[in-house]
């Protein structure tokens, strides 16, 4: 008996390389429902309908927290499963789908099952007839954009598995968070907020260049956009671990993420680039010099990012300050969609106090250091806005494919 379709919720979608993208693939989305449910991993945010209209035209979607994380959209019309037309329970493996088709796709991939169509490989797949031909049903799953990469082959029934990144794997799981694997060797601090932010800081991302692209300039842009998409997924998961964030209303959580996502990404690039000389570390294995940026049409972005790098290098920004500023950037929203401003201000105050406590403990020789760091946030936002404009221009030029998550987050910033 196939599972019924409960209110929309999310599950694992994974990440994938930029090769082979289409309009129907890589659709990461928030789900619809009236209550918070668990989220296995932070791999989905928002989606466009097939007609290209925004799902959140009337009101912004948001993130919630219950026993685990749940992505929820308010006031969104009921969506249908792109495979069979049943009511979609969420975005599963990249597309809106029902529980039955989600489970079917997962079983097929995990079991490495091969099907054959008894007719001509063109059976109609509907809610009533989806069981009639497994081969055509699986083909339809792939056609509408379900991603094999989203199915964890090592997940079994009976509870969550613990994953360790093998040494030979270049690109980490975007849902993985720092535990004992993290190389961080920073200062011990009495402030629990700062120490917690250090603990939940995501693992470093690694670029996965598409070697099939002959044009190196297009390859640079494609790799960068794929990288940003994966960092967005990690940012969504990271945000729920920021102390005080998950108790905000669902709408306010999404408003903060939509407002601050690029600031968070930019701050990460800047922090990675601090040890470098006039180069930008987009990832640990993806460093861009001025000439590469010029050839790829990113010269202005290179210039403004380096301006921010020099500012933070001058302050000798440390890891604890970096993770705290990142959380402050999340809370320091300029969104007009905030429902409960007092709750957001309380979150800002809590993070501000954490930074002040840390500075008093570790930089007592400079009583104004926390203020100096806070004064960098306007430049961070200005730099992030330049980055948004750059990628909006790349989108308009249409030279490279972009993941839908990145497209929709850019749309939210316009």
Automatic annotation (TrEMBL):
InterPro entries noted in UniProt: Est_rcpt/est-rel_rcp, NHR-like_dom_sf, Nucl_hrmn_rcpt_lig-bd, Nuclear_hormone_rcpt_NR3, Nuclear_hrmn_rcpt, Znf_hrmn_rcpt, Znf_NHR/GATA
Chief localization: nucleus
A Gene Ontology cellular-component term: nucleus
This protein's UniProt keywords: Acetylation, DNA-binding, Metal-binding, Nucleus, Receptor, Transcription, Transcription regulation, Zinc, Zinc-finger
Compartment(s): Nucleus
Domain NR LBD: from-to ranges: 185-413
Region described as Disordered: 1-20
GO molecular function, one term: zinc ion binding
Domain Nuclear receptor: 78-153
Family under the similarity heading: Belongs to the nuclear hormone receptor family. NR3 subfamily.
Identification of the protein by name: Estrogen-related receptor gamma isoform X3
């Amino acid at each position: 008996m196939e599972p019924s379709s409960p209110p929309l919720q999310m599950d694992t979608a994974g990440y994938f390389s930029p090769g082979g993208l289409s309009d129907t693939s890589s659709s990461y989305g928030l789900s619809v429902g009236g209550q918070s449910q668990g989220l296995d991993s932070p791999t989905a945010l928002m989606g466009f309908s097939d007609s290209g209209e925004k799902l959140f035209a009337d009101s912004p979607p948001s993130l919630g927290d219950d026993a685990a994380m749940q992505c929820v959209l308010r006031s969104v019309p009921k969506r249908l499963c792109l495979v069979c037309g049943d009511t979609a329970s969420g975005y599963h493996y990249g597309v809106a789908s029902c529980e039955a088709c989600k489970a079917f796709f997962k079983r097929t991939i995990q079991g490495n099952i091969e099907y054959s169509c008894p007719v001509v490989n063109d059976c109609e797949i509907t809610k009533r007839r989806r069981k009639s031909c497994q081969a055509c049903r699986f083909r339809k799953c792939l056609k509408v954009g379900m991603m094999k990469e989203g199915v964890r082959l090592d997940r079994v029934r009976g509870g969550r598995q613990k994953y360790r990144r093998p040494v030979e794997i270049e690109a980490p799981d975007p849902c993985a968070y720092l535990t004992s694997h993290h190389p961080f060797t920073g200062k011990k601090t009495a402030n629990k907020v700062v120490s917690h932010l250090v603990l939940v800081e995501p693992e470093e991302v690694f670029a996965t260049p598409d070697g099939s692209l002959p044009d190196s300039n297009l390859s640079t842009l494609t790799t960068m956009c794929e990288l940003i998409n994966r960092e967005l997924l990690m940012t969504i998961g990271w945000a729920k671990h920021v102390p005080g964030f998950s108790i905000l209303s669902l709408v306010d959580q999404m408003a903060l993420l939509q407002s601050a996502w690029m600031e968070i990404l930019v701050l990460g690039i800047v922090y990675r680039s601090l040890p470098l000389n006039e180069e930008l570390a987009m990832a640990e294995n993806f460093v861009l010099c001025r000439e590469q940026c010029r050839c790829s049409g990113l010269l202005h972005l290179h210039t403004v990012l380096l301006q921010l790098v020099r500012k933070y290098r001058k302050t000798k920004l440390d890891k604890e300050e970096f993770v705290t500023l990142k959380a402050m950037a999340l809370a320091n929203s300029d969104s007009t969609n905030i429902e409960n401003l007092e709750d957001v201000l309380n979150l800002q105050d809590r993070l501000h106090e954490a930074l002040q406590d840390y500075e008093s403990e570790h930089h007592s020789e400079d009583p104004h250091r926390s203020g100096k760091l806070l004064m960098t946030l306007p430049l961070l936002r200005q730099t992030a806005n330049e980055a948004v404009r750059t990628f909006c221009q790349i989108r308009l030029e249409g030279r490279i494919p972009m993941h839908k998550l990145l497209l929709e987050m850019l749309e939210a910033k316009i």
